[in-house]
């Protein structure tokens, strides 16, 4: 579509540049009055969309959310003349993730009320300038550079900024352009350990580094203090971020070593905020990536926004208790200059300079300064208008809603004077049941009929208690650090070892186990009789089930060697109470007795059979266009319950050897069922060569209360991806 439409898009843009942009540039600055576009050509190369992701979970039913990976390596050419200088652009590179929201969905044409666009993070931008050497001499333009243009894009297109285009007439889009944020995340940056040494003396002796952290969500970035000469720094600092969009926004943490010349990179961390939102509180040591060693200790708290005045208690530690959202709409009847209202007398000062008088007569170019506490934010500037319309949203953290105020000051960009001020006590918001004010506010120190129109929304911040039924993501984070005890082999958390008496009940070899062993030794292509009520009935069912499933998936009935790579699994059973399983576990002759310390579950069985723990159906393929491994978890059947109260199964996926918390995927939890249906898709963005070297580690787990003694893992399977034709893909039980 883009390739076909690109020439037409180019024609529209050429017209826009000449008729809209050129007059705007000329009006900006006296030096730019002669600006003319001499060449506008958008080139042959159009932007490419590398992938599209559609969200169907955790979103409203009346909207469609898409993420587009956009890549534009363009050969566009744009030249302009300013006085005697010629300058321009020859080629642009831009890539980033653009989110497109179609909402609200309607029952009549055009079926979609409006389209909202924004970048999740600042896109990467490179511009190839032409005539750049002359550019630096041009007054009024010499401050332009790539970074300024990036900031310009960020100010309009990166969250929390959005572009909303209504598709239906008379559509009110204010709430789409400025939706109430999803929540607030409070990040406690506690400490780090074993950071890499970056400082060196005379190139030989390693010194200690001076680490600091940069924390970033969207366009908001905070910097921690620097800890001098310490590879195990302790910060104990707290930062608060507004989260505007879920799912999609991530917390990025970069560690640097402060140096007089250039700061050295010491590692980074990317944390999905969806998991933090679901878990409410995560207190973990996280392994740093892109470095050889180091762990970072963070405590993350998800704060919900509540319309509840009772939650507005004052915090003794100086942390925020509420958030104020200001929708700055417009102003009316601003004075042309501040002499119009000084002391109510019009000509307070005599103006001798005629040129200055001319400047006073034109309409003001105004911007707004909004202040709560010690934080001030500035709006964009509306040029030459006594009724400016800003249409912007701002958020402030509030410590005490009962005593703090919002200070508003409208200023003219050409003079230091204020065109009007207003003070709104936040306690006024508490009188309204919705904690909202949407009105015109009279301006002080201005004309008697000067107003500013704003909507103010106050919301209390509240850390909710985590759902005791939910599986905490933080507990599952596998990390080689000082916090959790780990088994050397599997790099997994150790379960509580089963009490010795339980194990001793299990006979090392029994008639049942001998029967099972002989059954396992049979040629796996031989069909087993399901009705055979011989010594080990359950394993025989499982083997037959596997064979049937295999035949359903592969009509040509491949030899089951294809299964060997996949189904090689022994379950993890923290407490062996079910003796029905015991003989089969004990009988796998080759296993060391330690198999009862049942976290060593990566045992190979060579005939494609498994314990009677049920089956999981997976569809796995490699999507070349998206450069990603797609794993579809269809469902499970015949799971073995781990307790009398039933199980709430979910599926957890790692792409080994990567066991980082951030790269773990998991399905939703299905309540009280042994045959859950998920149909959930997960993606790992890796090259095909890398994927071929990896192993899928898939575990079915029971979501149980955190303090419960029940067995958590219901079964596990590992798939060696080097053995599979991933482009063609496979689907099987």
Automatic annotation (TrEMBL):
PROSITE patterns per record: C2 (PS50004), SMP (PS51847)
UniProt domain SMP-LTD: residue ranges: 1-168
Composition-biased stretches (Low complexity): 504-513
Example GO molecular function: phosphatidylethanolamine binding
One GO term of the biological process aspect: lipid transport
Biased composition (Basic and acidic residues): 519-528, 547-559
Membrane topology: Peripheral membrane protein; Multi-pass membrane protein
Entry-linked SUPFAM superfamilies: C2 domain (Calcium/lipid-binding domain, CaLB)
UniProt keyword annotation of Endoplasmic reticulum present: yes
Pfam families reported in the protein's UniProt record: C2, SMP_LBD
UniProt entry keywords in alphabetical sequence: Calcium, Cell membrane, Endoplasmic reticulum, Lipid transport, Lipid-binding, Membrane, Metal-binding, Repeat, Transmembrane, Transmembrane helix, Transport
Region (Disordered): 469-563
Protein localization: Cell membrane; Endoplasmic reticulum membrane
GO CC, one annotated term: plasma membrane
C2 domain: residues covered: 159-286, 304-445, 612-733
Family indicated by similarity: Belongs to the extended synaptotagmin family.
Protein name per the record: Extended synaptotagmin-3
Source organism of this protein record: Calonectris borealis (Cory's shearwater)
